[in-house]
Amino acid sequence: QVQVVESGGGLVQPGGSLTLSCVATRTVFSLNGVDWYRQAPEKERELVGTITTAGLTTYADSVKGRFTISRDNAKNTAYLQMRSLKPEDTAVYYCNNFYENSGGRRWDYWGQGTQVTVSS
User: Fold this and answer.
1) What is the pLDDT of residue 93?
2) Nearest 5°: phi and psi at 117?
3) Which pairing describes strands 57-59 and 46-51: parallel, antiparallel, or unpaired?
4) What is the pLDDT along the chain (120 residues), one digit of tens a residue?
5) Please, which contacts does 67-74 make with residues 24 or more away whose CB atoms are closer than 8 Å?
6) Cβ burial 53-63 (10 Å sphere, 16+ → b, else e)
7) How far is residue 22's CA from residue 7's CA, in Å, rounded to a whole number?
8) Of 83, 74, 109, which Cα lies nearest the Cα of 95?
9) Which H, E and C letters describe the chain, residue by residue?
10) How far, in Å, CA of 24 to CA of 95, rounded?
11) Cβ atoms within 10 A of the Cβ of 112, count?
12) Measuring CA to CA, which residue among 11, 7, 10, 2 is closest to residue 79?
């Protein structure tokens, strides 16, 4: 069974930085794309960004220029670097590892989430 674990969340002041990690085990990580999502209280889950198996990244407009997604296949780990954090970035952040086969079928493996709170 694939396991995905996020870490690195916490309390940070506005304008600060934080880096989240997402470790996936029991999977060939290099074959997985990785999505980062977030969900604020009473709001729908929002896609923050994605990194493909080739290392290509896309971001939501709300975080573009402030957040950076990267991956280290040797460590089975993806990262979400967050800078210039705002109170509206407060949310539970989730990592989703996904695999798509040549036939278009997709498998998703979610972590349990990590809380990020931006407050003074």
Assistant:
1) 98
2) -120, 125
3) antiparallel
4) 899 999 999 999 999 999 999 999 988 898 899 999 999 999 999 999 999 999 999 999 999 999 999 999 999 999 999 999 999 999 999 999 999 999 999 999 999 999 999 999
5) 69/34, 69/36, 71/29, 71/34, 73/29, 73/30
6) eeeeeebeeeb
7) 7
8) 109
9) CCEEEEECCEEECCCCCEEEEEEEECCCHHHCEEEEEEECCCCCCEEEEEECCCCCEEECCCCCCCEEEEEEHHHCEEEEEECCCCHHHCEEEEEEEEEECCCCCEEEEECCCEEEEECC
10) 10
11) 11
12) 7
Instruction: Sort 83 into a burial class: Cβ within 10 Å, 0-12 / 13-18 / 19+.
Output: middle
| Token pair 């997985």 in the structure block, residue | 32
Q: Which amino acid is at 18?
A: L
